[in-house]
Design a protein that fits this description.
Elements (H helix, E strand, L loop, with lengths): L2 E5 L7 H19 L7 E5 L10 E8 L4 H19 L6 E8 L5 E2 L2 E2 L6 H9 L1
Parallel strand pairs: 1-2, 3-4
Antiparallel strand pairs: 1-3, 5-6
Helix pairs in contact: 1-2
């Protein structure tokens, strides 16, 4: 369910770097939330507004229920990984996370369970 959209000019990352950053996103999300890697999605796009103050924007839609420390860790670690790959100034990278209620998302044709629920443990066992 988690979807991370990375809006960045096309000449900033080559294919290998995009693959590496995608692996970074999966690693960060899963290590912070415990989600299975197969559920994490990454989409690269061009920024809509080339005159924006930031060069890159990482926008994640994640299942609601994560606490502030988890969200801050995800944003900080993703920004750091992108800085390492691109040498962009951290001030040029915006990060944001949006909570999506579990009942508004589906994976494998099933509505997601709420984080921490008994249904989640059963759902995870099927993964």
């Amino acid at each position: 369910m988690p979807l991370y959209r990375v809006a960045i000019p096309s000449d900033t990352l080559d294919v290998e770097q995009r693959q590496q950053f995608s692996r970074n996103v999966v690693d960060v999300h899963c290590s912070v939330t415990g989600a299975p890697p197969s559920l994490v999605h990454v989409l690269f796009t061009e920024p809509e507004d080339q005159s924006a103050r930031s060069t890159a924007h990482i926008a994640g839609s994640i299942r609601a229920g994560r606490n502030g420390d988890q969200k801050a860790a995800i944003c900080r670690r993703l920004r750091n990984h992108l800085v390492e790959l691109t040498e962009l100034d951290p001030e040029e990278i915006e990060t944001s996370l949006v909570d999506v209620g579990a009942s508004y998302a589906m994976e494998r044709g099933e509505v997601l369970p709420e984080p921490g629920s008994a249904e989640e443990a059963a759902w995870d066992a099927q993964t």
